[in-house]
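Thanks for the sequence, V.! I ran CDP-alcohol phosphatidyltransferase family protein right away. Repeating your input here for the record:
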Amino acid sequence: MSKLPKEYRFLDLSDYGRPFARIIAEFLKNTSFTPIHITLAFVVCGILAIICILNQYYWATAFFLILKSILDAADGELARLKETPSYTGRYLDSVSDILLNLLILLTIWYVTNGSLVLTFLAFFGIQLQGTLYNYYYVILRNKHNGDTTSRIFEEETPLAMKGEKQRNVNILFGMYSLLYGVFDKIIYRLDRGAVESENLPNWFMTVVSTFGLGFQLLVIGVMLVLGIKEYIIPFFIGYSLLIFVFIAVRRLINR
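Predicted structure:
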């Protein structure tokens, strides 16, 4: 099930695992497995990827990073199929992603004997990339009657949906705000006018989707397999400069 009406769907380069995610969700639809179980499964995949990096099993690393991306899509697919959307799942997914991203980059720093400062700079850049993509994507979904579990402004703790506990939502929202708040604020200040955008063309969203987590993990996996792990950190620092390019293009489109 798509997050957008048909006419507003675009080729999401970070969402290459979606077809496999739908198969997994269909298979689990009538079982006791919940979206939370799938989220926990992708956390395990992320940890296994880290172990593989430490042991220089780079093909296995790429496999687990891609599998993580597939499962990252499957939890949402299963939630929509079972009609059980939840803020618990939404925030658990995001919190798990950011912590795994940090651990993966720290692991790459460890095996390359690189700069810890540059590693944190790359992490900061990766998070800003993902935040810009999600910012535009959520705006698009909210404008065109798409999935609304994610909100443009995550400023207040939402009310728990049917089937979830408010206490869990409160805890996970607090963690989300702590980990993501600074990135959300930076992106909003860089492009606050995007909220009023009348036009976010499909081609534009496709290009910006290279900032999505799935694409980022794919790049890391490919670079590890190619034996150029020393360039992963510098690549993401340099690629972050496109944030300003994409914002400029967005403004030109909506002049």
